[in-house]
Amino acid sequence: MNKILLFSFLLLPFLCTSQEKYPQNYFNNPLEIPILLSGSFGELRSNHFHAGLDIKTKGREGLKVLAAAEGYVSRIKVQQFGYGKAIYITHPNGFTTVYGHLSKFADEIEDYVKSIQYKTENYETGNLYFKENEFPVKKGEIIALSGDTGGSGGPHLHFEIRDTASENVINPLLFGIKVDDTIAPTFLNLKVVALNANTRINQQRKSFQIPIKNIGKGKYVANRISASGVIGFGVNVIDRFNNSYNKNGIFSLEMLVNGKRFYYHYVETFSFAESKFLNLLIDYKHYKKYKKKYQKTYKETASKLSTYKNLINNGKIDIKEGLNYNVEIIAKDFEGNLSSIKIPVAGKESNALFTEQKDTTAYKIIAKNFNKFKNKNVTVAFPKKTFYEDIYLDFKVDKGIAKIHTPTIPLDKNYTLTFNVSDYSNDQKEHLYIANVEYPKYPRYQYTRKKDSTFFTTTKTLGNYTLLSDKQKPRIKLLYFKDKQWISNFKTLKVKISDVGSGIKNYRATIDDEWILMEFNHKKNILTYNFSDKKLVGSKHIFKIVVSDNVGNTNELSATFFKKQIN
């Protein structure tokens, strides 16, 4: 039996169950062009799993976005980051589709959204909910144009399918949406991990990378290792679709030990609440240091992911002296293309002795308890279960910089970081803010709440923090026109804004003292107003904009322009 037939046979029960749960061919392609993906469902992203498909739009904006099936627009949300402009369509079969990073909604929806934005004088709308009879849509109806809004890394359509009742996201490919994919996953690296203090690997008590060799047709082999005690493995693995160079995620990862499945992880569906446990699925410390994601083939005790199935000893292998183990790690994409690594392991006791390094820090975290520590003018407070396990916290304050351990440990919750600022004058405090200075050349503003003698922030990231001062005003620059210019043929008005300190907090623009909607492209620092929003009266007009940063420094620009109404 060849590899494809064997895989199809093994996958048959899963496919039958999935097709019963997920109606086939109910949802159409949401774009006017064939589907080509730049991002797969369940991909390992920063602090979360990718919740949908990223569909390429040929590197441009403005492609027609179509309702994947009949239903009604149940929610719209416009935000600066996240999904940017997004539409949610509820369907009568119990599912909801989501379309993100849009540039513009269909005319009727666009008019409604802009009426809300002008009423509230705010670009961001929050969640706007609708009843079944307000914006019904037919399958294939144009609902929007594709774009690059929100936290997008370039023009594309983000497409999701959710269970309407639970809002859990589901892999859209399970519904019969087709993507050309005949390429097997690629293993890039392999690690072996010592999982307790008594473990020895190749006479050493540490984790390290194992060389692997690609012998063709999706098969890899690793060097033999000797070990004793409990070990685990981690793999750096990617997948690619046909006609695409993007490095995507896999559908499933499996580990066999002497032919018996010890570990299985697959991305059929998950909740947004569990997505944070991605940081326990990967070697988080290695990722933070080297920006390379190793997916573990064992489950951490604290992980609550629902994407594991039928684990033995949580995927941890207890190596016994004198026994040989044939370990095979198998990565598959949704279409069943697979690659595997075979790792021979010999059980061999080690007589090597290692001196245990004792932790001398005075700040011990008991994960199940509330923990609060003070050092000089800095206090940190960790709610119960912020950490996944007990640790000794490295907490120092030196030359004004608070070192809160290192950012190589994932946290489950936000903690509070407080600076005592009683030694600063009122004028100094007005310009101070808390910043993350893990990379000193690129300090990052932390949302800073101010009281008389203390400033505090909340964060899920350990690392270096300090107080910085910002006395510089934001910068404002007119684009493509100047003061007292005729711009009758202009369809838009653009301004560039930037800030070198705490960052831009807000802006307000008017024409002839009436608020106008300017959309902010934070990747290019450009604000854009569309003249079609309002009919101007007369030919002479005064444009004003006020921009503030996060500590209250404000700058203002005013310009006169002339524009004839062109019908």
Taken from the alpha-carbon principal axes, the silhouette is: globular
Rounded to an integer, what's the Rg over CA atoms? 28 Å
Total DSSP helices: 5
Tally of strands: 45
Mean pLDDT: 94
Oligomer state of the chains in this structure: single chain
* Cα end-to-end separation: 71 Å
Helix proportion? under 10%
- Structural class, by secondary structure, is mainly beta
Approximately how much beta-strand content do the residues carry?
35-45%
Biggest sheet, open or closed, and with what strands and sense? Answer: 12 strands, antiparallel
Task: Describe this entry's structure for a reader.
It is a single chain. The protein has 567 residues and is mainly beta. It is built from five helices and 45 strands. Strands 1, 2, 3, 4, 5, 6, 7, 8, 9, 10, 11 and 20 form a twelve-stranded antiparallel beta sheet that branches. A hairpin with a 7-residue loop joins β32 (432-436) and β33 (444-445). The protein is globular.
Topology:
Blueprint: H1 3-21, E1 37-39, E2 53-56, E3 64-66, E4 71-78, E5 85-90, E6 95-105, H2 107-120, E7 126-129, E8 136-137, E9 142-146, E10 156-163, E11 169-170, E12 186-194, E13 200-201, E14 208-209, E15 212-216, E16 219-222, E17 225-238, E18 252-257, E19 260-266, E20 269-270, H3 278-281, H4 284-290, E21 295-296, E22 317-319, E23 324-332, E24 338-347, E25 363-365, E26 371-375, E27 378-382, E28 391-393, E29 395-398, E30 401-404, E31 415-420, H5 426-431, E32 432-436, E33 444-445, E34 449-450, E35 454-459, E36 463-469, E37 475-479, E38 485-486, E39 492-498, E40 504-511, E41 514-515, E42 518-521, E43 526-530, E44 540-549, E45 554-562
Parallel strand pairs: 16-24, 17-24, 38-45
Antiparallel strand pairs: 1-2, 2-10, 3-9, 4-5, 4-7, 4-8, 5-6, 6-9, 6-10, 10-11, 11-20, 12-14, 12-17, 13-17, 15-16, 17-21, 17-22, 18-19, 18-23, 23-24, 25-28, 26-27, 27-31, 29-30, 30-36, 31-35, 32-33, 32-36, 34-35, 37-39, 39-43, 40-41, 40-44, 42-43, 44-45
